[in-house]
């Protein structure tokens, strides 16, 4: 019995260890007494676990503030250099690899071209070699503190197995990305869809920090979605929850690349619009700015269907905030110009003022930071799975 009791106490202590670490990450700066108040733990228990976190170099003290009764309270925050994560973004436009701190800062990165003529296994083997080169550049002091490797990629991915079912852009099917990379590298690898990693990154480091119930609509060469409930990523039965790009909005509409008619992405994503008008997307928006009728109608149509999609998502998920992200949103602001008015026309009246429309804060490194956020999110919730 004493052995079992000790074992249980150890697991509960581990749970509290990661719970406090997660709260410090969420609040950015917080005192021991505030942590005790939030968790209902005793000040003594919090103090002991914070000492462990500081000994493990995961938490540091960062000055003091006035306490509730005039006493100075020492503030705690995540030590950005306490551990590191390797983030990888696989896109048709190129592959990014970076070493990222626990606070989402890139300290070193490498870029390489995505070569579509190479097989998936060739690309992954070269990626593994490039990761090793990057780790060699940052040195042993950083290598010893690497938690894991996160990979962000478009397409359908199984979770947590990390097997890629299909990426139309790459013409890859049924590839064991996690297994292949873990054989080449002495690290745990996490793999997920790029829309989820974008939402995770903004939730941990960016514009979605204050929203526990949230949705991301990502518009680029395709359309994707992701949703979080009470701070946890929703995945669905086959990790495909949020694939709103193939939600039918007009059964008599244009043929989608999936073979069906009138999917959302046929109205709003760059590849479908380019296919319909046989012009680069930059030209479409430039012509719209010049008020050429054909282009104005295309952009207005895209905005209308985006408004419809947002209103439908609000009815389905009832989020506090909707993150509008992706190249189409960030490179062509005309798409989301006055989007509030479009949403207002279609959203169900009881939900009209229940949400915020939000845009990303993280810049050009969002892919690798998102991949690192995938690892950090799993690291912080590790004990919840264990208990």
UniProtKB/TrEMBL annotation:
Gene3D superfamilies: 3.30.420.40, Winged helix-like DNA-binding domain superfamily/Winged helix DNA-binding domain. InterPro entries: ATPase_NBD, ROK, ROK_cs, WH-like_DNA-bd_sf, WH_DNA-bd_sf. It comes from the Bacteria. Keywords: Carbohydrate metabolism, Xylose metabolism. It holds the Pfam family ROK. Belongs to the ROK (NagC/XylR) family. Transcriptional repressor of xylose-utilizing enzymes. This is ROK family transcriptional regulator. It comes from Tigheibacillus halophilus. The lineage of its organism: Bacteria, Bacillati, Bacillota, Bacilli, Bacillales.
